[in-house]
Amino acid sequence: MSENSDPVAKYRAKDDLFTPSNLISVMRAMLAVPAVLCLVAHLYLLVASICFVAFITDVLDGMVARHTDTVSELGKIVDPLADKIYIGLVVIPMAAYELIPLWFLATILGRDLVILAGGLWAKKKLGVELPSNIPGKAAVVAVALTLFLIMIKFGISGNTSVFMQVIVSLEWVSVALMAVSLWVYGRRLAGLLAVAR
Predict the structure, then answer these.
(1) Residues 6+ apart with CB under 8 A from 116
(2) Exposed site from 23, 60, 66, 159, fewest CB < 10 Å?
(3) Max avg pLDDT among 1-5, 65-69, 75-79, 168-172
(4) What is the 3-state secondary structure (H, E, C) of the chain?
(5) For the whole prediction, is pTM greater than 0.90?
């Protein structure tokens, strides 16, 4: 069946398990453990360093997958799941220590749960995992940058009023990007389901 007659075909990829990009994604998810431990110990600058490494792995896994032609169905699950695991596990203790507002935590976790549920439904109905969209990746970058700056703010002494203004702005930019990514994801999923019928 050609891509013209099968609208879902372009979203299908290989079923490779052990690819370099998948291993990088798994490593990013595992970075949540030292990040949370450092948060509990109030080693905020160290958490910021781990956040930076996690961001680098997020950039690398996609680049490696494309350049080595190893984009896989599992990779389309592992990459966004690694983002959700890392950010989700980090923001929960951050909210517990009042480093981020509860509404920001709820927005991040709520959006991730909706995307996860939509992904599971797409897998059941269409047999494929839909890849992340550009606004979604931008939202992850914005959230990661927000968390990074918060860690820097609490890790240094002195006047941090400028940091606070930037952080608040980034929180709202993150929320806007999360809303756009959710709309794009939902529209693409609805369109594919309609055509597949």
Answers:
(1) 84
(2) 159
(3) 168-172
(4) CCCCCCCCHHHCCECCCCCHHHHHHHHHHHCHHHHHHHHHCCCHHHHHHHHHHHHHHHHHHHHHHHHCCCCEHHHHHHHHHHHHHHHHHHHHHHHHCCCCCHHHHHHHHHHHHHHHHHHHHHHHHHCCCCCCCHHHHHHHHHHHHHHHHHHHHHHCCCCCHHHHHHHHHHHHHHHHHHHHHHHHHHHHHHHHHHHHC
(5) no
